[in-house]
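Quick start: read one record
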Amino acid sequence: MKIALLGYGKMGKAIEQIALERGHEITATINSTTPLDSIDWTNVDVCIEFTQPQLALKHISYCAQRQVPIVVGTTAWLSDLPAAKAQIKSNDAALLHASNFSIGVNLFFELNKHLAKLMSAYPDYQISLEETHHVQKLDAPSGTAVSLLEDILELNPLYESWSLAANRQEQIKVSAHRIPDVPGTHEVRYDSPIDTIKIEHIAHNRKGFALGAVLAAEFLKGRKGYYQMSDVLKLQS
């Protein structure tokens, strides 16, 4: 498979290593100094995009118009998702996006949903979420944390919102930390006056994220439409 890497920072380089190990070819590496029009897009089977939130929709539209399937790992752009889906549909193209491509994190998402549904019957437990990432992580809370929070809110009617400065019983309190050399840690806690229940995912390196992105690209090649990581892993909530 011929892959274009749109965004060639630490994540792009980790994806490149995994893709080569799996027998794929990197036909383009694109960063802020590389014009999109300088790439031979006819020599690309799938584009993998990890850039900036304000660029995601532009990149999706660009690839859609050229019938290049695109895997998007950029986060904090989902207010543009309806427009992105419209571009994919009108161009009969393909898009797969995820807040986190790690297989372990996506299993953690499913565990979080199950626990949220179970705990919705027990109002004595107060929910909180704590996440820690490296200092280069721009969005806080992270896209992974937001996905966890949105799933809890959908399944637990006792809560109406989340906040980094939660001061009401109906809000989930969120703590976001940025320290050097931490790939990503997420903890969901349920605290009552008598005990605590918590689930946690700790990433040891970027390899899990990179592998998931390559698996997503392998899945997306030859397909049309809109997909998420749960489609790749065939997860059923």
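The chain has a mean pLDDT of 93.
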